[in-house]
Amino acid sequence: MAGEKRILIADDDPDIADLLETYYRKKGHNVTVVGNGKDALRMMMETGKFDIALLDVMMPYIDGYHVAYEITSKFGADAPKIIIMTSRDVASEKGIAMLSGALDVVQKPFTLEDLDKRVKALLGEQEE
Predict the structure, then answer these.
(1) E strand map for the chain
(2) What's the pTM?
(3) What is the pLDDT of residues 56-81, one digit of tens each?
(4) Which of 47, 57, 65, 88 is placed for a possible disulfide with 100 were both Cys, Cβ 3.0 to 4.6 Å?
């Protein structure tokens, strides 16, 4: 990706969170990882300085849809791009995700290459 991006990863599965954190840090990005929706929302409201947020749907305290909705409601056009990550069926979840303010939905398990293509597309970046 061109230049360092600020990425928020919110997932209560430590294996997925660690994998994504390692992957994006190796690409030179500033990565913040939280394990629940409450912390994700707090990080966004306190800083608001993320380029993209990767949000799991099913997290403790607040689900990813609610986090996405609150973020996009508060920041409007200045909200980070949001990708929802879910183990549920994407076809049935896509409408809910879009209503919440997310711009894309990826189904778990996913490949890092597929997720990275989606991240780059949302950030308007060219493939390497």
Answers:
(1) 6-10, 30-34, 52-56, 81-86, 104-107
(2) 0.94
(3) 999 999 999 999 999 999 999 999 99
(4) 65
